[in-house]
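Lecture notes, unit on binding sites. The following record was shown on slide 14. It pairs a sequence with magnesium ion.
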Amino acid sequence: MTAEPNAAAEAPVPAPADFIRDIVASHVAEQRYPGGIVTRFPPEPNGYLHIGHAKSICLNFGIARENQGRCNLRFDDTNPAKEDLEYVHSIAADVRWLVAGWAEQNLGLKPSGARPAATPDAADAADFYARPAPGGAAAEPFFASDYFEALYAFAERLILAGKAYVCDLSAAEIEAHRGTLDQPGRESPFRNRPAAESLDLFHRMRAGEFPDGARTLRAKIDMAAPNIWLRDPLLYRIRHLAHHQSGDAWCVYPLYDYAHCLSDYLEGVTHSICTLEFEVHRPLYEWILEALALPRALPRQYEFAKLNLAYTIVSKRRLLQLVQENVVTGWDDPRMPTLAGIRRRGVPAAALRTFVTGLGVTKFDSLTEIAVYENAVRDALNGLAARRLAVLRPVKVVLTNLAEDEVLECRATNNPQDENPATRPVALTREVFIESDDFAEVPPPKYFRLKPGGEVRLKYAGIIKLDEIVKDAAGALVELRCTFDRTTRQGEPNSDRKVKGTIHWVSASRCVEAEVRLYDRLFTVAEPAAEPDFLKVVNPRSLETITARLEASLADATADDRYQFERLGYFAIDAKDSAPGRLVFNRTISLKDTWAK
Ligand code: ATP
Ligand code: MG
C-alpha cells in the first residue's frame, strides 16, 4: 500500500448533523453508556469493499471519533461457502487506508488470538475488549468466528429455556411452512419436541452426525407474526465446510441474524449501525438479545439509507461478476468502484471521506450524481497535486530559430494554490511536442491555439508563430515549423505580450515516455443495476492506453505523489504496474475546465 499524501495535514471536516448522530449525542448527554460509545464496521469477507462501504466506514468511525469511542473492525464470517482469506486481507488494508490519519486511533482491535470464554460474563468481556495499542503487533481485527464457542453456548441456553428447537424439516419444507405477507405460517411438527431432545440433537449436529441440510436450529417465536423474520427463523444450519478462520472445528454455522446481535453484545457495541434492508430484522435482533436475559447493557440497531452512485455498481456480487468475466483486470482495476480500485487510481482517502460524509445520513434511498464524487476528488487533488507538463498525443514542433544544441531554461510553477509556490526548471529545446488538438490546419471560428500564421504561448516559455506545415508524401503531418519570439521569455521585455492561446508542451529531446491509462465511466447508463443485464451496458471505451511524453522531472515520480498534468487532468503512478524504467500513470480524473476554451 502506498502512503497517503498529506493525510496527516488534513483539517478535520465536521460531519453534518444527522438523526443517528443526534441519538448518539442524547445517549452521551444522559451518560447511558459509561464505557463510552462503541460502533463496529462488520463486512462479510465475500468480496472487496466498495464506495458504498466507505459511507458505512466513515459513519461508524466518524461517530467513534467524535465521541472518543472506538469502532471495531469485525469480519462477519459466518458463511464459509462464499468467503475467502484474500477478502479478509484486502478489507483490512482498505479500512486502514480509509481511516489513516483520521480515525486510526479509534480503530478497535483485539489482542491476537484472543477469544471470549464460552459463556462470557461481564468480567471476561472487559478483558477481551481492552483496546490494544492501535497498529500494535499484537492487535488484529475481530471475527464473528471468534465467538463460535460462545454463540453455541448461548444457543444451548435458548434451547434449555424453551426458546429454540431443532427442526428436521428440509429447506423446501421450511419455506412452504413460512406463509406469506398476508398468510400466517404453519408450525413445524418438531416445534414442541422436548428441550432435552433438541439439545441432544444440537450436540449431535455439532458432532457431525448429520449431513448438510438434515436439521436446523430455529428460534421459537411466532409463526403468525406479521414480520416474516419472526416466524421461527433459523439460527444454525449444518455445513460440512472448512472455514478460513476456524478450519475444520465446526460443521454447524450460525446465521447472520443470530451471530450479529450477539457479536455486537460480546464486543460491548453500543450503536449497531446498518443499512435499511436490516430494518425488518431489528425485532429479531432485539428478541434474541432479550431472550438470553444478558447481564450487560444491550446494543441497539439503527438503520440508514445506502449510498447509490450514478454510473456505478455497489454490490459485491455484481462486482465479482465483472472480475470473473474479465470485464476488468481485477478487483483493484482503477475503473472499479472498490476502495482498492479507487486507491490505485490515485484518489486520496481524504477525498473519499469528504465525499461520503458530505452526503449526510438519511432514511431515504436516493441516487447520488457522479459529479458530486468527481468534484470532491478534484477539490482534494487541486491543493495536493504538483503541476507538471505532459503531452498525451504528441505533434512535433521545430523552433527553427533555436540551435540544435540550444537549451533555454524556463521556470515552471509547481502548484499555484500554494502560498509561496515553488518552481522547477523545464528545458525548452529546438524540438518540442505539443498536443495534437492544440493545432488546427483549418481552424474553426474562435480557435485560439496554433493555426497557420497564428501565434500561441508555450506556457512558461514564450510565444511561437507557425510558419510552415510539413507533411510526408502520403499527406500525414510530420512537423510544424515555428519561430520562437525570444523577447517574450520570462524576464524579457515582452514577456507579458498578450496572445489569446496558451498551450502546454515538452521538450522532445529532454522528455520521458510513459504509458498513460485514460479512464472513462465503466457503464453507459446512470443506473446499471436497474438493467436486466448490467453486463450489456458496460462502456466499451472505459480504458484507453497511450504512450505519452512527460517533462523529464517525472522520471522520478513516486506513487505517493499526486500530479496535475497541466490542462489535462490529475494523474498518479500506477503502483502495481510501474517499475524502475517503466512509468505507468493512471488518470485519476480530468479537469473540470480546460483553460484553452
Ligand atoms: P453488498 O450488497 O455489496 O454485498 P453488503 O451489505 O452485503 O454489501 P457487507 O459486507 O455485509 O456488504 O457490508 C458491511 C456493512 O456495509 C454493512 O453494515 C452494510 O450495511 C454496509 N453497506 C453495504 N453497502 C453499502 C452502501 N452502498 N452504502 C452504505 N453502506 C453500505
Ligand atoms: Mg451482506
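Take-home: The first strand starts at residue 38 and ends at 41.
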